[in-house]
Design brief:
With 331 residues, this protein is of the alpha+beta class. It is built from seven helices and ten strands. Helix 2 runs antiparallel to helix 3 and helix 5 crosses helix 7.
């Protein structure tokens, strides 16, 4: 039997090394994120079953094909000369048909077995609550039951059921709310609300990703979910409720970073709009409210539906940036 060329062995070894590296990377690599909720754990199990079956099918097809390429090559025979003719094998054909049906049946059965846990995480200790999630160009806005609002970063309690009510304002575009460690993707559709439930089982900070291309600054539409022990979360939520009863420079700073700076900030990604630092418009409450709530020229209505307290908080922060110059606030 002829030896397999060294180049082929090296290529195979390189592919195995690359696959091993990807498998070892649980954060954004080939492997799924570490689950931090029961639903995410079920999604991970389905994923690995599909990977295992896909790898098996690939091996069944690719390994014999590679062997046949070398074993049955022409070996100097003229191109006009036909090779041995194989007339078929009924048993083999029936076998691979039944095998394919069996693999598909396994996938379907396992998905339906896991699906209830993905859709319904079950009851958890403590009272559950609903967080409104609004996808906007180009940030996430969260509203808690007590009226507390947050931008890009949402905090949740450990081992407590949370319902996400996902939507987008009328006049916006479709976004997709995805927290890989907690659940699958849910579209944020203008004027339509979609609900799903999660029960966080690990503390930590997890990425929020917009999984639907939503415009020029889509890449900046990233946020985070911070899971806290239940007692720490309750203290934070109560503290924020008191802080947000009036204009808060802390909230305004979060709004500036999450909403305004992505287009008007000093970073490379934030230079698609005019520079705002030094613009006296930032200290004009009425003018600023008009622009953010209704948009201006190419600028969308980023603050559509914002409360007066939110607008006041933004002005409380931006008035220190206003200065005496500026570029007229062109949108």
């Amino acid at each position: 039997m002829r030896r397999i060329p060294t180049a082929v062995l090296l290529a195979a070894a390189g592919a195995l090394l690359a696959a091993g590296s990807a498998l070892a990377d649980s954060n954004g690599g080939f492997a799924p994120r570490d689950p931090a909720s029961p639903g995410a754990g079920d999604i991970r199990d389905v994923y690995w079953l599909l990977v295992a079956i896909g790898s098996f099918v690939f091996a069944v097809v690719a390994i014999p094909l590679t062997i046949f390429l070398f074993r049955f090559r022409s070996r100097g025979r003229g191109r006009e000369v036909e090779g041995p003719q194989i007339r078929g094998n009924s048993s083999l054909e029936i076998g691979w048909t039944l095998g394919a049906v069996g693999l598909v049946t396994i996938v379907i059965a396992f998905v339906f077995y896991k699906l209830p846990g993905i859709v319904d995480p079950g009851q958890a200790a403590g009272d559950g609550f609903t967080v409104k999630v609004e996808g906007r160009q180009f940030y996430w806005r969260y509203v808690y039951p007590n009226g507390v609002v947050a931008f890009d970063t949402v905090r949740l309690p450990l081992d407590r059921e949370v319902t996400f009510a996902v939507s987008a304002p009328d006049g916006d575009v479709i976004h997709s709310f995805w927290v890989p460690n907690l659940a699958g993707k849910r579209d944020a559709i203008p004027g339509t609300e979609t609900e799903f439930r999660v029960v966080p089982t690990k503390t930590g900070t997890f990425d929020v990703i917009c999984a639907e291309f939503c415009g020029l600054q889509h890449a900046t539409m990233r946020g985070s979910v911070e899971v806290l022990p239940a007692a720490a979360f309750d203290r934070w939520l109560s503290d924020q409720e008191q802080r947000q009863t009036a204009a808060s420079a802390e909230l305004g700073g979060s709004m500036w970073t999450s909403v305004c700076a992505k287009c008007h900030g000093p970073s490379v990604a934030g230079k698609i709009g005019p520079k705002l630092e030094g613009n006296p418009l930032l200290a004009d409450r009425e003018a600023l409210a008009q622009i953010v709530r209704n948009g201006r020229r190419k600028m969308p209505a980023v603050g559509q539906g914002w409360t007066d307290e939110e607008v006041d908080s933004l002005v409380e922060f931006t008035k220190a940036l206003a200065g005496g110059g500026g570029g007229g606030g062109q949108g």
